[in-house]
Amino acid sequence: MKPNFARRNFLRGTGVALALPWMESLSAATTNSKPPVRFACVYFSNGVEPIHWWAKGQGANMELGQAVLPMTPHREDINFLRGLYNHQAFINSSPHLGRMPNLLSSAPVSLDPANIRAGTTFDQVLSQRIGSQTAVPSLALGIEPNELRLEDGLSMIYGSCISWASPTKPATKEIYPARTFDQLVGDGSGRALDKTILDSVLDETHSLEPKISRGDRVKLDEYLESIRDIEKRIARANKEERIEGWKPTLAKPNMPRPADKLPQNVPDHMRLMLDLIVLAFQMDKTRIITLMLNNDLSQMNFKFLEGVKGALHLDLTHNGKAPATEAMYLKTNQFHIEQFAYLIRRLKAIDEGGQSILDSSILMGCSNLFDGDAHGADQMPIVLAGKAGGTLKTGRNLDYLERGNENRRAASLYLSIMDRMGVKLDRFGDSDQRLADL
User: Fold this and answer.
1) Model pLDDT for residues 153-165, shown as the tens digit of each residue
2) How far is Cα 192 from Cα 238, in angstroms, rounded to an integer?
3) CATH numbers and ranges of domains, the chain
4) Nearest to 357 by CA among 289, 436, 432
5) Integer Cα distance of 368 and 86 in angstroms
6) What pairing do the DSSP bridges indicate for beta strands 78-82 and 150-151?
7) CB neighbours of 385 closer than 8 A, spacing ≥ 6?
8) Which of 52, 127, 225, 353 is the most exposed, having the fewest neighbouring CB atoms within 10 Å of its CB?
9) Binning pLDDT at 50, 70 and 90, where does residue 83 land?
10) DSSP 351
């Protein structure tokens, strides 16, 4: 007789329930053993170099422009989308702040400084409709903090958030890896857990082992070890200098300073947040995540990239097509796509009973502008990855410009994504149509 396990399986200790990864031998008796579909958006700011952002051909024979070269190992796992655009961004007169906060809503952006309004984003629509199925309805993550200064008379909150819980309120963006981890491993409310919490559930782990297959035992061990690894990396990051906000001018503060929980090294910070996305999906603590690798009008310094010297991201992307700066701009594009490729690779490596988490996901790598130097909003750079639980065919280059499609609205893509997440709307943003051929 097979043991009777609940649909969600947990290890429990010291009053905390730790969600297990999906395991085939534990789900044999469940009523629905199909893994859920997850969505993640990985955003990078200030657009791309158009001459390097292209794709030709299909599947394993797909050729990619230099900016997208990190996608080469994953050509059969992606859909390269060309020609989609956000109409409300295109017609907005503000070249940055009017063309960024509505990235995921396709709604009008108010240019009245006294009336901040950008539209509820589709990730938050998903959170409101299906977020109750998980401990954490959704996560809005970032690397750089929210900025409250003004730029061209508009609040930089527009440039700091791509996820909006309502037309007038952005979702709370978390940039601290430790706090994100506490949400995922704790009870979903952000309660901090003792770093040795896993030790308290070892006895139950041992009692679970005879009931699962040898392959699932290996999976369980790897899962627990991955949590320990992230804990160690957070502890190391806490010792680094702060990356956000004002820094004191004293070499040694003359009063105690708060504990620092942000990595100083930008690539390490990004990878840690990406690993937390993997952990969130693997634990099924949330199925809806956005990650901003940088803010719009970002001042991030890319000196950590070989050949990129003395220029901030905003300066690199607004280069007047100067050859030397343009080459550095390309390197930042490649770096951002490398981060997206890393997430694809991680999720592709985790098996969920004959298919990977990537197979059960929709990942969207994107920016709000096409030509960053020209503030071009006539189309958006978008790469999709994952099969959405078998409902999305991959390995395709879908050029909506070349096909002459009349429906090139980004909101049509968002309706199509929400369909695959189990949320069906008659209309979203400025579209009432699904994206053709997706």
Assistant:
1) 899 999 999 999 9
2) 15
3) 38-180+267-420 (3.40.720)
4) 289
5) 8
6) unpaired
7) 74, 77, 78, 79, 340, 344, 358, 361, 362, 363, 364, 365, 394
8) 225
9) very high
10) B
